[in-house]
Design a protein that fits this description.
The chain is α/β, with parallel strands linked by helices. Helix content is about 40%, strand content about 20%. It is globular and about 45 Å long. About 40% of the residues are buried.
Length: about 230
Protein backbone atom coordinates (compact mmCIF):
# COMPACT_ATOMS: atom_id res chain seq x y z
CA UNK A 1 0.00 0.00 0.00
CA UNK A 2 2.74 2.63 0.66
CA UNK A 3 4.21 2.21 -2.84
CA UNK A 4 0.77 2.46 -4.43
CA UNK A 5 0.02 5.79 -2.79
CA UNK A 6 3.55 7.07 -3.35
CA UNK A 7 2.85 6.70 -7.08
CA UNK A 8 -0.38 8.69 -6.77
CA UNK A 9 0.87 11.50 -4.53
CA UNK A 10 1.04 13.90 -7.49
CA UNK A 11 -2.19 12.95 -9.27
CA UNK A 12 -4.42 11.76 -6.40
CA UNK A 13 -6.82 14.70 -6.52
CA UNK A 14 -7.02 14.66 -10.32
CA UNK A 15 -7.81 10.93 -10.28
CA UNK A 16 -10.61 11.42 -7.76
CA UNK A 17 -12.05 14.41 -9.66
CA UNK A 18 -12.21 12.34 -12.85
CA UNK A 19 -13.94 9.47 -11.05
CA UNK A 20 -16.63 11.71 -9.52
CA UNK A 21 -16.98 14.01 -12.53
CA UNK A 22 -20.49 12.75 -13.31
CA UNK A 23 -21.75 14.42 -10.10
CA UNK A 24 -20.52 17.86 -11.26
CA UNK A 25 -19.32 18.74 -7.78
CA UNK A 26 -15.67 19.09 -6.69
CA UNK A 27 -14.20 16.53 -4.32
CA UNK A 28 -13.64 19.31 -1.77
CA UNK A 29 -17.42 19.52 -1.23
CA UNK A 30 -17.55 15.96 0.09
CA UNK A 31 -14.41 16.35 2.19
CA UNK A 32 -15.87 19.44 3.85
CA UNK A 33 -19.12 17.58 4.59
CA UNK A 34 -17.20 14.81 6.36
CA UNK A 35 -15.16 17.33 8.34
CA UNK A 36 -18.36 18.98 9.57
CA UNK A 37 -19.80 15.59 10.48
CA UNK A 38 -16.66 14.78 12.48
CA UNK A 39 -16.91 18.06 14.40
CA UNK A 40 -20.62 17.48 14.99
CA UNK A 41 -19.94 14.01 16.44
CA UNK A 42 -17.20 15.43 18.68
CA UNK A 43 -19.58 18.10 20.02
CA UNK A 44 -22.37 15.58 20.47
CA UNK A 45 -20.30 13.05 22.38
CA UNK A 46 -17.50 15.07 24.00
CA UNK A 47 -19.02 18.50 24.57
CA UNK A 48 -18.20 21.91 23.15
CA UNK A 49 -14.48 22.22 23.96
CA UNK A 50 -12.11 22.03 20.95
CA UNK A 51 -10.69 18.52 20.66
CA UNK A 52 -7.20 17.19 20.00
CA UNK A 53 -7.53 15.20 16.77
CA UNK A 54 -5.57 12.52 14.89
CA UNK A 55 -6.25 11.54 11.26
CA UNK A 56 -4.90 8.06 10.46
CA UNK A 57 -4.37 7.66 6.73
CA UNK A 58 -4.44 11.41 6.20
CA UNK A 59 -2.99 11.34 2.69
CA UNK A 60 -2.61 14.89 1.36
CA UNK A 61 -4.23 16.44 4.44
CA UNK A 62 -7.57 17.09 2.71
CA UNK A 63 -9.60 16.77 5.91
CA UNK A 64 -7.09 18.89 7.78
CA UNK A 65 -7.78 21.83 5.45
CA UNK A 66 -11.28 21.99 6.95
CA UNK A 67 -10.34 21.15 10.55
CA UNK A 68 -7.46 23.61 10.93
CA UNK A 69 -8.34 26.31 13.46
CA UNK A 70 -11.42 24.41 14.67
CA UNK A 71 -9.68 21.91 16.97
CA UNK A 72 -7.18 22.31 19.79
CA UNK A 73 -4.45 20.32 18.02
CA UNK A 74 -4.35 18.60 14.65
CA UNK A 75 -2.21 15.61 13.68
CA UNK A 76 -2.09 13.25 10.72
CA UNK A 77 -0.21 10.07 9.83
CA UNK A 78 0.12 8.14 6.59
CA UNK A 79 2.21 5.29 5.21
CA UNK A 80 3.26 7.39 2.19
CA UNK A 81 6.16 9.80 2.67
CA UNK A 82 5.38 11.81 -0.51
CA UNK A 83 1.78 12.23 0.66
CA UNK A 84 2.97 13.46 4.06
CA UNK A 85 5.40 15.89 2.41
CA UNK A 86 2.55 17.43 0.42
CA UNK A 87 0.26 17.54 3.48
CA UNK A 88 2.87 19.56 5.36
CA UNK A 89 2.94 22.12 2.55
CA UNK A 90 -0.86 22.33 2.38
CA UNK A 91 -1.63 22.55 6.11
CA UNK A 92 1.31 24.05 8.02
CA UNK A 93 -0.79 24.36 11.19
CA UNK A 94 -0.99 20.56 11.56
CA UNK A 95 1.68 18.03 12.51
CA UNK A 96 2.14 15.17 10.04
CA UNK A 97 4.22 12.00 10.40
CA UNK A 98 4.93 8.89 8.35
CA UNK A 99 3.70 5.87 10.29
CA UNK A 100 2.83 2.22 10.00
CA UNK A 101 -0.91 1.69 10.57
CA UNK A 102 -0.37 -1.04 13.18
CA UNK A 103 1.90 1.04 15.44
CA UNK A 104 1.09 4.73 15.74
CA UNK A 105 3.87 7.00 17.07
CA UNK A 106 1.87 8.40 19.99
CA UNK A 107 1.40 7.63 23.67
CA UNK A 108 -1.70 5.94 25.06
CA UNK A 109 -4.65 8.29 25.45
CA UNK A 110 -3.00 11.15 23.56
CA UNK A 111 -6.08 12.37 21.60
CA UNK A 112 -9.72 13.24 22.20
CA UNK A 113 -10.66 12.01 18.71
CA UNK A 114 -8.89 9.61 16.34
CA UNK A 115 -10.43 9.03 12.93
CA UNK A 116 -9.80 7.41 9.58
CA UNK A 117 -11.37 8.14 6.19
CA UNK A 118 -11.71 5.47 3.50
CA UNK A 119 -8.73 3.45 4.73
CA UNK A 120 -10.31 0.14 5.76
CA UNK A 121 -11.23 -0.86 2.21
CA UNK A 122 -7.53 -0.73 1.25
CA UNK A 123 -6.62 -3.22 3.98
CA UNK A 124 -6.91 -6.97 4.28
CA UNK A 125 -9.70 -7.91 6.72
CA UNK A 126 -7.13 -9.30 9.18
CA UNK A 127 -5.35 -5.93 9.25
CA UNK A 128 -8.39 -3.83 10.16
CA UNK A 129 -8.69 -4.96 13.77
CA UNK A 130 -5.10 -4.02 14.71
CA UNK A 131 -5.55 -0.61 13.07
CA UNK A 132 -8.75 0.12 15.01
CA UNK A 133 -7.18 -1.15 18.22
CA UNK A 134 -4.34 1.35 17.67
CA UNK A 135 -6.84 4.17 17.16
CA UNK A 136 -8.46 3.13 20.43
CA UNK A 137 -5.10 2.98 22.21
CA UNK A 138 -4.12 6.56 21.34
CA UNK A 139 -7.60 7.89 22.20
CA UNK A 140 -8.21 9.05 25.76
CA UNK A 141 -10.67 7.14 27.97
CA UNK A 142 -14.22 7.82 26.75
CA UNK A 143 -12.76 9.66 23.73
CA UNK A 144 -14.03 9.04 20.23
CA UNK A 145 -12.83 6.78 17.41
CA UNK A 146 -14.51 7.58 14.09
CA UNK A 147 -14.51 5.61 10.83
CA UNK A 148 -15.69 6.98 7.48
CA UNK A 149 -16.04 4.52 4.62
CA UNK A 150 -17.58 4.02 1.19
CA UNK A 151 -21.04 2.46 1.23
CA UNK A 152 -20.96 -0.67 -1.00
CA UNK A 153 -24.77 -0.64 -1.30
CA UNK A 154 -24.63 2.60 -3.31
CA UNK A 155 -24.16 1.88 -7.04
CA UNK A 156 -22.60 5.30 -7.76
CA UNK A 157 -20.05 4.70 -5.01
CA UNK A 158 -19.08 1.41 -6.66
CA UNK A 159 -18.74 3.29 -9.96
CA UNK A 160 -16.40 5.83 -8.34
CA UNK A 161 -14.26 3.07 -6.81
CA UNK A 162 -14.00 1.32 -10.18
CA UNK A 163 -12.86 4.61 -11.71
CA UNK A 164 -10.00 5.19 -9.24
CA UNK A 165 -6.78 3.40 -10.18
CA UNK A 166 -5.57 3.40 -6.57
CA UNK A 167 -8.76 1.55 -5.53
CA UNK A 168 -7.95 -1.44 -7.73
CA UNK A 169 -8.54 -4.58 -5.69
CA UNK A 170 -10.29 -2.67 -2.88
CA UNK A 171 -12.67 -4.66 -0.68
CA UNK A 172 -15.53 -2.37 0.28
CA UNK A 173 -16.65 -2.67 3.89
CA UNK A 174 -20.31 -2.61 4.94
CA UNK A 175 -21.38 -0.42 7.85
CA UNK A 176 -22.20 -3.45 9.98
CA UNK A 177 -18.75 -4.89 9.33
CA UNK A 178 -17.08 -1.64 10.36
CA UNK A 179 -19.18 -1.48 13.54
CA UNK A 180 -18.37 -5.11 14.36
CA UNK A 181 -14.65 -4.45 13.84
CA UNK A 182 -14.79 -1.49 16.24
CA UNK A 183 -16.53 -3.61 18.87
CA UNK A 184 -13.97 -6.39 18.41
CA UNK A 185 -11.26 -3.79 19.06
CA UNK A 186 -12.84 -3.11 22.47
CA UNK A 187 -14.71 0.06 21.54
CA UNK A 188 -18.34 0.96 22.27
CA UNK A 189 -20.25 2.01 19.15
CA UNK A 190 -22.32 5.17 19.73
CA UNK A 191 -23.29 6.34 16.24
CA UNK A 192 -23.76 4.73 12.83
CA UNK A 193 -25.10 6.88 9.99
CA UNK A 194 -25.18 6.97 6.21
CA UNK A 195 -24.31 10.30 4.61
CA UNK A 196 -23.77 12.08 1.28
CA UNK A 197 -27.05 11.04 -0.29
CA UNK A 198 -26.81 13.93 -2.77
CA UNK A 199 -23.88 15.56 -4.58
CA UNK A 200 -25.42 18.94 -3.80
CA UNK A 201 -25.05 20.55 -0.41
CA UNK A 202 -27.02 23.14 1.52
CA UNK A 203 -29.15 23.43 4.63
CA UNK A 204 -32.25 21.79 3.14
CA UNK A 205 -30.27 18.88 1.66
CA UNK A 206 -28.44 18.30 4.93
CA UNK A 207 -31.68 18.27 6.92
CA UNK A 208 -33.07 15.69 4.51
CA UNK A 209 -29.92 13.62 4.79
CA UNK A 210 -30.22 13.75 8.58
CA UNK A 211 -33.70 12.24 8.31
CA UNK A 212 -32.34 9.50 6.03
CA UNK A 213 -29.28 8.69 8.13
CA UNK A 214 -30.37 5.09 8.79
CA UNK A 215 -31.24 4.36 5.14
CA UNK A 216 -28.35 2.44 3.53
CA UNK A 217 -28.24 4.49 0.33
CA UNK A 218 -25.79 7.29 1.16
CA UNK A 219 -22.56 7.33 -0.81
CA UNK A 220 -20.59 6.93 2.41
CA UNK A 221 -21.18 6.20 6.08
CA UNK A 222 -19.69 7.05 9.45
CA UNK A 223 -19.40 4.88 12.56
CA UNK A 224 -18.27 6.43 15.85
CA UNK A 225 -17.25 4.56 19.00
CA UNK A 226 -16.05 5.47 22.49
CA UNK A 227 -12.73 4.29 23.83
CA UNK A 228 -13.01 2.35 27.11
CA UNK A 229 -13.44 4.56 30.18
Amino acid sequence: MPAEFDRHSADYEMTVERAIGFARQPHEVYIEAKARKLLELARRRLGGEPASVLDVGCGLGLMERHLEGRVSSLHGVDVSEPMIWRARQEVPGAEFRVSRPDKLPYADGRFDVAFTVCVLHHMEPRQRGPLLAELGRVTRPSGLVVVFEHNPWNPLTRQVVRGCSFDEGAQLVRLRQAAAALRSAGLHVTDAEYLLFSPWRGTLVERLEGALAKVPLGAQYVVAARAPA
